[in-house]
């Protein structure tokens, strides 16, 4: 499994950040490659399921996912249930006033450390659902997709921070990627 962890500080109260992140259908507006988020009603379970339709290069692909657990306002856990083996979570931690980063805006009166974690197996993608152009191998696509995933995670977090805070600012991101 590959792992990706992206973390930053958002200058909003923890409960506001949680309420913002729990609304998955709005994620498509932050991502260059996530085209649509479809809510999938599931009468047998209380968890919410989503169809995440991605487009990158000449490919489109839909991943089915679900929220598996929540602990308001601390965590949102999720996993994919079809077309890719992945799981992850959003973690939120309140930052106390005396621990605000020195780069905090003067107007900041609350801060939350937001961390997005994902563990995924790129080889688990359902190849039958991907129509590759002639002479393009699945391995070639995976080799180019990995850096695109990291770049997309960074850009998405930056856009979320801008929307949450109501203004654009340089966002310091910590990004870790481990290939398994």
UniProtKB/TrEMBL annotation:
Gene3D superfamilies: 3.30.530.20. This is START domain protein. Signal peptide: none annotated. Residues 12-129 form the Coenzyme Q-binding protein COQ10 START domain. InterPro entries: COQ10_START, START-like_dom_sf. It comes from the Archaea. SUPFAM superfamilies: Bet v1-like (SSF55961).
């Amino acid at each position: 499994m590959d792992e990706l962890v992206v973390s930053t500080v958002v200058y909003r109260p923890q409960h506001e950040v949680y309420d913002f992140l729990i609304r998955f259908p709005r994620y498509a507006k932050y991502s260059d490659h996530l085209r649509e988020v479809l809510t999938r009603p599931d009468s047998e379970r209380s968890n919410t399921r989503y169809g995440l339709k991605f487009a990158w290069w000449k490919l489109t692909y839909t991943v089915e996912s679900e929220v598996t657990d929540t602990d308001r306002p601390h965590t949102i856990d999720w996993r994919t249930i079809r077309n890719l083996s992945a799981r992850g979570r959003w973690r939120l931690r309140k930052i106390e006033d005396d621990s605000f980063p020195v780069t905090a805006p003067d107007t900041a009166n609350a801060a939350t450390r937001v961390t997005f974690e994902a563990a995924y197996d790129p080889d688990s993608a359902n190849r039958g659902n991907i129509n590759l152009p002639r002479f393009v191998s699945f391995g070639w696509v995976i080799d180019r997709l990995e850096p695109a995933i990291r770049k997309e995670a960074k850009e998405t977090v930056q856009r979320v921070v801008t929307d949450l805070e109501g203004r654009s600012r340089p966002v310091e991101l910590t990004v870790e990627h481990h290939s398994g």
